[in-house]
Specification:
Layout lengths: L5 E4 L5 H12 L3 E6 L3 H13 L4 E5 L8 H14 L5 E6 L14 H22 L3 E10 L12 H21 L5 E7 L10 H4 L1 H9 L9 H11 L11 E4 L6
Parallel strand pairs: 1-2, 1-4, 2-3, 4-5, 5-6, 6-7
Length: about 250
Amino acid sequence: MSDNKIAIVTGGSRGIGRNTVLSLARRGVSSILTYNTNRVEADKVVALATVAGARAVALQLNTGDAGSFDGFVERLRAALAGWGSERFDYLVNNAGTSSNTGFAQMSEAELDQLYNVHFKGVFFLTQKLLPLINDGGRIVNVSSGLARMAMPNRIGYGTMKAAVESLTRYMALELGPRRIAVNVVAPGAIATDFSGGIVRDNPEMNKRVADHTALGRAGLPEDVGPVIASLLSEDFRWVNAQRIEVAGGIAI
């Protein structure tokens, strides 16, 4: 898979993004990962990817601030140049924030913030990066099982992820002439620090997820990262515009 391939992974300092970077590293793929505030954790991922035999660089990026994207692209160009490259091959739009607010309580400010990170950020960051991604490259957007199934207090998050799934199909259509395939991965409930670590750290919630999952447990980052890495490989070259739920069979 490698051949000096390069991936951009947003939100790569923790959880699913972190595991994606490390899964790619084990396949020989270099990664430029982004982090919002936690440089220490991002540097740890860089070190682990290096140990696995791949190059990695961490760049700061707030995916909810589209006005910062031009500056990020320039820093990305510089990072690529440091590797003797002008372009990259894979993009994983993974960075995200959580929300636990019901319909009646949702404020305009919170909805705007979810929109900026989960939809507008994915839309315009990908647009800005189009000149740098190689023809024949691949893009994976990260959605959620909550785009398919409704749960209390997830209305803002779930609907934004549903929008990302629709966006994925439109991207696949419009980038088809460049042979860029675009797919979306929808994880189920994953035991990470996401949403305050509610699935990982709350035994009652973890059991509730397990009880509603056909394979009998909550998901882990290492259940999802290898799927994303695989989707970027040549093995999946003819898979395009597809939604793949990685959830162990939750709420079938």
